[in-house]
Amino acid sequence: MKDIKEESKKMYKVIALIGKAGSGKDTIARKICEEMQNINFITSFTTRPKREKETEGKEYHFVSKETFKNLNLFDKEEFNGWLYGTGYD
Length: 89
Hints:
Helices cover 25% and strands 21% of the residues. It has helices at residues 4-8, 25-35, 65-70, and strands at residues 44-46, 60-62, 73-79, 82-87. The protein has a 4-stranded mixed β-sheet with strand order 2-1-4-3, with no helix packed on it. Strand 3 (73-79) and strand 4 (82-87) form a beta hairpin. The two termini are 21 Å apart. The model has no long low-confidence stretch (mean pLDDT 85).
């Protein structure tokens, strides 16, 4: 059995796909995750409204500004007035 303290110290590599909105970043990321079982998609939090074809917990966790402020996030940014952040979990 792995030591929980040692497991919590494990470092992870993060790969970021960068491109214009609608350029296919999420499609590419999901395809990579499907084909490579050791790679996981990180679902971030946002305060922007959910778009028509988005699913809660898949593209983002959609939360209020109040909820966002109370989240334990290691990365936060603001874009076009909306808040975005990535949680530790």
